[in-house]
Design a protein that fits this description.
Structural class: mainly alpha
Strand content: under 5%
Radius of gyration: 27 Å
Distance between the termini: 68 Å
Number of strands: 0
Order of helices and strands: H
Length: about 70
């Protein structure tokens, strides 16, 4: 169910309370979006590190298969 501002019809300043609720919902939305953005950045960096490690590992394996790389001279 969609989030929507709570309505307080008995308050003296309905418009002000409604505006405050809208602002609170907007800030919560921005906060969640920022968390998602941070998580995406962290996952992107971690995936790149893993990809680079695997590429180096495969490069060494292929060099060893082709006898281009050895443990001892």
């Amino acid at each position: 169910m969609a989030r929507r501002p709570r309505i307080n019809l008995e308050g003296n300043h309905f418009r002000d309370s409604y505006k405050a609720e809208l602002d609170a919902l907007e800030m919560q939305t921005k906060l969640v979006r920022e968390f998602i953005s941070m998580q995406m950045d962290l996952e992107f960096k971690a995936n790149n590190e893993i990809r680079e490690y695997l590429e180096k590992s495969y490069e060494i394996i292929y060099q060893q298969i082709d006898n281009e790389w050895q443990y001892y001279p």
